[in-house]
Amino acid sequence: MTSSSTTSDLLAASVDALDRVRATGPLVHCLTNDVVVNFTANTLLAVGAAPAMVDIPEESGMFAGVAGGVLVNLGTPHAELRAAIEVAVAAAAEAGTPWVLDPVAIGALPVRTELAHRLRDASPTVVRGNASEILALAGAGAGGRGVDALDEVDVAADVARELARSAGTVVAVSGPVDLVTDGDRVARIANGDVLLTKVTGGGCALGAVMAAFAAVEPDPFLATVAAATTYTVAAELAADGARGPGSFAVGFLDALATVSGDDLRTRAALS
Length: 271
Prior knowledge:
The chain is an alpha/beta fold. The protein contains 11 helices and 8 strands.
């Protein structure tokens, strides 16, 4: 972390952003994969945002222009979704709508990899992925095993900073300790629980939450740190009473709905 952003600054900004999400209920336009639509929508509702799954080309551009934030997730990039993404990204750029790119499983799979590289060059507000996906997006790796990372977060740290600089974006690398960078500032969030990796959509829904926070916080770096902190602290709260992935998934939605500024102040492991 640079001297311009102290831990207390990041924590205060995270608490403030969470309060603003709940106060304003930002509308998040999700162009996401078929596997996680329901979980993503419920996650946004739980944290206080409003989800919209508008994924046909004839409507996606219009909706991206009026939404508070946009999520572009490449988990199941069928032809119609790819077309809707292209239209939505262009409309978001024209309207100044912040948008998040989640380059799911890129590297070895050619269709999504080529699309991800073009979207990277379209100046996303935030890029979120695991270490292998971030390396592949930067042209420095071959990707992971499907959606699973084969690389550690620290291996991707320098590449993430350079990618943030070159693409003019904030890069969030998810892992046991999340890393967020805008190419200058770097923050690490050491919260969360392994049960989050046992629920379908646990990572994908985080991209949607980042879009919600970017809708209310004009500094994308602070918005991304706030989203990741809120999300991973809620995961810890849910894990405390969980018996396994099923009860965790239900408890996680409850925790997102009730996680408070005091919870962030008490639990956030920011550095």
